[in-house]
Amino acid sequence: MGVALREGAVVGRFQLDRLLGEGGMGEVWAARELETGEPRAVKFLKGSSSSDERRRRFLREARAAMTLRHPNVVTIHGVEDGEQPFMVMDLLAGETMRAHLERNPRLSLRAALTLMMPVIAAVGAAHAHAIVHRDLKPENVFLSPREDGAVEVRVLDFGVAKFAASLSTPALTESGDRLGTPRYMSPEQARGARGVDHRADLWSIGLMLYEMLSGRHPIAGDSVQAIFRAITFDPIAPLEVDVPADVREVVMKMLSRDPAQRPRDLREVVAVLAAHHDSTAPVFDAPAVAEHRASRPSVSTVDETIDRTVGGRSDGRRVLLVAVAIAATIAATTCAVVRRGASSAPRTSASPTGSEGTP
């Protein structure tokens, strides 16, 4: 049995401070490293959730961290695969994009691109490393205010991410549910289709842009089943807002139900959006999808690679220290933003794993 997770408990070299959030699969705690006093966010895989599949998903997130390094994703400082698996991340101050949109449901084009260009930069870099996020949504983007008044944007939650080389099977949980959050899920994910690739992320980014520019989400439904029907069959209303025509066109193209009708990759999206924003356009390589399809290993081979990366469980606790960038996860229904100090001060937050099935 692992250590009971409670305030003041010591797990490894960390003392737990307070629970930031939890989901069906994990818990995220604010903690302090005993030797250095550094504040960290520590994400635990729940003991009752430590099935082979969920452990592999947890370790897949660590593997993505070891592959991807980018300033617009959260840094992971280490991961331990033992009786009580956990990973150690930066403790962020700020709020989620969802919290921001609840106060400001409709943004100007400039404000929307200020938030979304860093997201596109991070996801484009992930695609270049053959990593497909598969659960992009405002809850999985974190905004941290800077002293100069600007905002740092980070993409969270690579917990359901998958390497392009292993995307030959539908994305299902152990209970048969599709991975990802229904309202931002692509049609091919909603159908449980095989071969879901980087273009699923383009659909989700298109939905986020549509929502930010129009002030409403184009997918309606009061249940998961209704949302799946709407994603799969209902026409999406044109984006009728006062923005340049090429912006409207690229957003609607990203929302094509047929992945082949969407932009080829995010570089095509950047080519349009960068012309309407004063920031430096993000640069990243083409998605590493076709290259991996030529010699696609089986899912079991990918999982075996993960197992070898972290070592066998019989080896006991084994810590892999990595200086990488990745995401913690923020479940839509369990997002926790904890205030530091007075109510006007920046808030600290991190997010639990287990966001699947949240409308």
Overall description:
Helices cover 30% and strands 20% of the residues. The strands form 4 sheets. The protein has a 7-stranded antiparallel β-sheet, covered by helices on one side. Strands 7-15-14 form a 3-stranded antiparallel β-sheet, with no helix packed on it. The chain is globular. The two termini are 34 Å apart.
Biggest β-sheet description? 7 strands, antiparallel
Radius of gyration: 20 Å
Helical percentage: 25-40%
SSE run? EEEEHEEEEHHEEEEHHHHHHHEEE
CATH topology of the largest domain: Transferase(Phosphotransferase), domain 1
Q: At the fourth CATH level, what is the homologous superfamily of the largest domain?
A: Transferase(Phosphotransferase) domain 1
CATH class of the largest domain: Mainly Alpha
| Number of discrete helical segments | 10
Average pLDDT works out at 77
Features:
359 residues, alpha+beta, Phosphorylase Kinase, domain 1, Transferase(Phosphotransferase), domain 1, 2 domains, seven-stranded antiparallel β-sheet, three-stranded antiparallel β-sheet, 10 helices, 15 strands, globular, disordered C terminus
Set out the fold topology.
Layout: E1 10-11, E2 14-22, E3 26-33, E4 39-45, H1 52-67, E5 74-80, E6 86-89, E7 92-93, E8 95-96, H2 97-103, H3 109-128, E9 131-132, E10 141-145, E11 151-155, E12 162-163, H4 187-190, H5 199-214, H6 224-233, H7 245-254, H8 266-273, H9 290-293, H10 299-310, E13 319-326, E14 336-339, E15 347-350
Antiparallel strand pairs: 1-2, 2-3, 3-4, 4-6, 5-6, 5-13, 7-15, 8-10, 9-12, 10-11, 14-15
Helix pairs in contact: 1-10, 3-5, 3-8, 5-7
